[in-house]
Amino acid sequence: MKILLLGIIALAVSAPANADTLDVYGLWLTQAKDAHIKVTDCGDGTPCGALVWVDPMIAEAGIDARNANTSLRARPLVGVPIVWGYARGKEKWKSGRIYNPEDSKTFKSSMRLQENGTLKVKGCIGPLCITNIWTPLPKPHDEINSEKRGSQMNITTD
Predict the structure, then answer these.
(1) How far apart are CA 120 and CA 111, in angstroms?
(2) Which one, of 75, 73, 57, lies nearest residue 65 by Cα?
(3) What percent of the chain stands above pLDDT 70?
(4) Cα angle at 156 between 150 and 158, to 5 degrees?
(5) By C-alpha distance, which of 68, 70, 38 is closest to 54?
(6) Whose CA is closest to 80, among 40, 47, 51, 103?
(7) Would you give the distance in Å from CA 154 to the centre of its chain?
(8) % helix / strand / coil in the chain, to the nearest 5?
(9) In 3D, which of 81, 78, 77 has the Cα closest to residue 63?
(10) What domains can you pick out in the chain, each with its CATH number?
């Protein structure tokens, strides 16, 4: 009985805590280091993320010029929804969507916070997936104060 109890305790201690792997909120630098994504609560307890900075050297005049929807091609890239629609999984956010402004494609997505503090973001078309690792960025003072007031992001995709 003692061995079983010790085994259960060891498993519980070694397993990642759900709250930790699901805590994806914050400001992130993309793997290509050409954009910052701010991930906040959509208002329903799930994460939503939007572009808050894009490298001016790669942005086509700072607009969503390649969007398949021609009526959205003139919208500024800053503020464009990048991740949304996730469902809470056991150890990750799953069944979400991720938008790539570089090719105007939207992919199925999942994400989880890694033990080292980076964010593992996966985008898939069918069985083919690409994984990117986003790095946390420090929060500016005004963002910390805004979070204390309980700001939320509302994402619309059209």
Answers:
(1) 5
(2) 73
(3) 76
(4) 165
(5) 38
(6) 51
(7) 14
(8) 20, 40, 45
(9) 77
(10) 17-148 (2.40.128.520)
As beta bridge partners, residue 63 has 76
pLDDT exceeds cutoff 80 at 12: no
Q: Per-residue pLDDT averaged across 12-17, rounded? A: 40
Q: What does the block give as tokens for 65?
A: 């010029």
Q: How many residues does the chain have?
A: 158
* Phi/psi of residue 22, nearest 5 degrees: -95, -5
pTM of the predicted model as reported, rounded to 2 decimal places: 0.77
DSSP three-state, residue 125: strand
**23-59 tens-digit pLDDT:** 999 999 999 999 999 999 999 999 999 999 999 888 7
DSSP string, 62-113: TB-TT-SSGGGTTSBSTT-EEEE--EE-SSSEEEEEEEETTTTEEEEEEEEE
Residue type present at position 104: S
Contact (Cβ atoms closer than 8 angstroms) between residue 45 and residue 154: no
Instruction: Report d(CA 75, CA 146) in Å as an integer.
Output: 25
